[in-house]
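Sample entry was shown:
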Amino acid sequence: MPPKSVYFQKGFGLKDAIQGSLRQDYHSRLVDVVKRAGFRLRTPTVDIRLAEEFGFCYGVDRAVEYAYETVEKFPDRHITLIGEIIHNPHVNNRLRDMKVEIISPEVAEAEAATRFGPEDVVIIPAFGVPAVLFQTLRSTGCVLVDTTCGSVLNVWKNVEKYARDGFTSVIHGKYAHEETRATASRATSRHAPYLIVRSMEQADLVCDYIRKGGDRERFLEEFRDAVSEGFDPDEDLERVGLANQTTMLSSESLEIAGKIRLAIEERHGDSEASRFRSFDTICSATQDRQDAVIKLAQERLDLMLVIGGYNSSNTNHLAAIASRFTKAFHIETARALVDATTIRHKPIGSHDEASAEGWLPDSHAVVAVTAGASTPHNKIGEVIARVLELRGVDPAQVGLTEAPQEG
């Protein structure tokens, strides 16, 4: 039997050694200036409104720092990252530049047992990994560096408790998302069922089935990729515990919980409320960023730029919230601002990038800016600087010296 992996979850105490690299890679003087000015920047041709909560959250900061510490700690070892450390292409590409190999979770699941040994260093990303993969990695004897976010671990604890107590975990999330796959595995590792619900429409289907049953095969077809093996809606919806992907819209998670609670009470009577459990496990950073966008709705805005990876769930939700009250564009970097007429962005609800014309008003404009929890400050600063340039404002004229850097 190979030795059990050497497991690290709390860092290597090398924060001072990596601070220079982190600052160089992710700091933005421009963002600092706007924050100090009360999150507002005024110029003759354009005003910037920066959300009061934006960009890297604590969990992301920790994961990125821990990855940098790992490179510092093991300069002569081969380091592999399972999937993306966070959903930001700039950060992941920077790790590749530092000679960290990134492999998909699917490749890891297929090859981990034979691919890794005691000489390897393996990083688990902020989203975590499925329980079976985790145990396989532990068995290889590799050096295992776990950056799983604390908020995600909190969800797992609830799902594991549901499983122990005989409840089915209904998870509000995206079934293909790394975090949700890892969360669902905490149920199946304890031989308990799960069901993943992505939308309010799917939640309504679940509630209808709880109330009155229905076409079992049709139900299973609807959720064919989002249920545990052998899931039986006639039995497995009798006792339900709600959980969620931490980056989902909190309002939707709470509404889904309320709908399912009511459906169970209507089916079994108020006295059977013990058949339902729910904990609000939206992480505080996700909630704070959503609240900050909603607060901006009180301002007169011409548009909002939402910065973050196109595959970032929390960034997509910020864009969706912003679109309710202003023209919103989800962009990845300052490169998206082609010129004062053309912008490249991911439309709300779309999977593909598109171009739009006339995004920036010809007259004085008020442009709000926010960013998902995986977006570093330098990418935010580059976008703000690009907006200023497109309106004929040199950042140096407003006491700013940095110019946009692309990467």
The chain is about 40% helix and 15% strand. Confidence is low (pLDDT under 50) at residues 400-407. Residues 250-268 form the longest helix (19 residues). The chain has three domains: 6-11+59-148, 37-57+284-398, 151-278.
